[in-house]
Structures are given as structure tokens and as C-alpha cells.
Design a protein that fits this description.
With 276 residues, the chain is α+β, with helices and mostly antiparallel strands. The protein contains 6 helices and 11 strands.
């Protein structure tokens, strides 16, 4: 909110009680779009309750026009915060706020022109500290949307009767001290090493399981093969007879043994040499 400068527009000459006086200077104020004004007449009606429209306003030099911007304005704050785990961080946050147009008169009467410095700023900084103190340091960066919403809700309650409205609260940045950054880096490095060790242990376990399964498979295969060979040997042993062996020996073309047939009494059978 600001008070407009006075600009002379015309002169008049009046005679009061026979004394010639120079005219009073008429003044103007330009209220631009996005602004509203309040007329201040200290010698008559005082501060007008009805906001002035956006246009050129003329008035006497002992009067004034107070002009408020009703456009959204962003205010930035940088606050040191002690987190839940007793670590100090620096938070940059912004609030987007404006006066309520129909309550400009009440705002001027109760708070004044510097309403942000008097009312909004202290509440804003306090809300940042109070809300973030409930969070651990490592979780703040992940919870910024939730933190912003909580700060906005807290401010809306605190500024409910202060004739301003809040559009949004934004956490712009979170700064950590060098010691905290070093501790975070060390922690992340250890976590990565642990994850790598877990990965290697899992690989080793899988390799051992594969080898065990392979060995068990080979052992089962060997048992099955041995059992099959034993069954085959038993079958062969049960089916072998002297006659069968003699027959196979005679049938073998590589066999060089000569079998001499015997008779009933074990004597050789005489074969007729003449072929009869």
C-alpha cells in the first residue's frame, strides 16, 4: 500500500474577509488496474470505507489517497530450522498473498500499510519452524509438498481475521551444513557398499544352489545308471545257459577255438570221413 504523490492541476483566487489568497491546489491520484484506494479526509469524514475505483481521483491538497495493490504478491523468507533429529538446516520458502479487496478499510484501520512486516512475516517464519521441527532431516526433501500444505493451513488459521488471503506456500530450497552433507555422503556410501555386499552374497548363494542341484542331479543319474546296469547283469546272468554260450561261441566268426562234439559217454563222435 502506498500514498500517491500530489500533482497541481489548477489555481483559484478567493477573497476572504477582504484578504486575497492564492487558490488551493487541486491534486490527483491515478489508481491503476489491480489496485484500490481509500480516501483520507482528515478535516471532514476521515477515512472512507468504500474503496475507490481504478481511475484518476481528484481531491484537495490536505486530503490523501491510500492505494493498495490487490494483485498476488510473493514474499521470500530464509529461516534456520532445528529438525526433529536435532540437526540445523536453512529453509527458503515463499508465500503468495494479497489483501482482501472488500476488507481494505479494516486492514488499514487495524494493521496498517506494512501488514506483511507486522503480521504475515512473523507468523510465516514461526509456522516454518514449527512444522519442520516435526520432521527428520533426511525426510524433509521428500515431504516438501506435505510440509508446504501444513504451513499454508497453519497460516490460514493464524491470519483468519487479518484481512488477507493466501494463495500458496512453496518450499524453494533446503540448505545443509558441510558437516551434514559429509555425513549424508558417508551414509549413502555405506548403504551402497551394503547393497553391493548383499548382491554378491545373493549371487554366491544362487551359485551354490545351482552347484548343489547339479551335483544332486549327477548323483541321481549315476544311481539310476548303476541300478540299470545291475538289473541288466541279473537278466543276462539268469538267461545264460551252457548251450547258449556254445552257440554264441560257434556263431562268432572271430572265434579260433574248435569244438569237438562228445557222445553220451563223453567219447568223441566219429564222423564218417567219406562223407557218408
Amino acid at each position: 500500500m502506498k500514498r500517491r504523490s500530489i500533482f497541481p492541476t489548477s489555481f483559484q483566487f478567493l477573497t476572504i474577509l477582504g484578504v486575497s489568497l492564492s487558490s488551493f491546489v487541486s491534486c490527483i491520484s491515478i489508481i491503476s488496474p489491480g489496485e484500490v484506494g481509500l480516501m483520507w479526509r482528515p478535516y471532514s469524514t476521515g477515512l472512507s470505507q468504500k474503496p475507490l475505483e481504478s481511475r484518476v481521483q481528484t481531491y484537495m491538497p490536505w486530503n490523501s489517497v491510500y492505494v493498495y495493490s490487490i494483485q498476488w504478491m510473493s514474499h521470500q523468507e530464509k529461516v534456520e530450522v532445528l529438525t526433529r533429529d536435532d540437526l540445523t538446516i536453512t529453509v527458503s520458502a515463499a508465500i503468495i498473498i494479497r489483501p482482501i479487496q472488500n476488507e481494505i478499510y479494516e486492514l488499514e484501520m487495524e494493521i496498517g500499510r506494512d501488514y506483511y512486516e507486522k503480521v504475515v512475516k512473523p507468523q510465516f517464519r514461526t509456522a516454518i519452524r514449527n512444522i519442520l521441527s516435526a520432521y527428520n532431516m533426511v525426510s524433509i526433501s521428500k515431504e516438501t509438498p506435505n510440509v508446504s500444505a501444513q504451513i499454508k493451513k497453519s497460516l490460514a488459521e493464524k491470519l483468519k481475521d487479518k484481512h488477507v488471503e493466501i494463495d500458496d506456500v512453496i518450499i524453494d530450497d533446503v540448505e545443509y551444513s558441510p558437516s551434514i552433507l559429509k555425513a549424508i555422503e558417508s551414509k549413502l556410501t555405506k548403504q551402497q557398499e551394503q547393497e553391493q555386499m548383499k548382491f554378491e552374497i545373493n549371487i554366491a548363494k544362487r551359485d551354490a544352489e545351482i552347484q548343489q542341484i547339479s551335483a544332486e542331479g549327477k548323483a541321481k543319474a549315476a544311481l539310476i545308471e548303476a541300478d540299470a546296469q545291475a538289473k541288466a547283469q541279473r537278466m543276462i546272468s539268469e538267461s545264460l545257459t551252457p548251450r547258449y554260450i556254445q552257440l554264441k561261441a560257434v556263431e562268432n566268426p572271430n572265434n579260433k577255438l574248435i569244438f569237438v562234439p562228445n557222445g553220451k559217454d563223453g567219447l568223441p563222435i566219429i564222423v564218417n570221413a567219406d562223407g557218408k
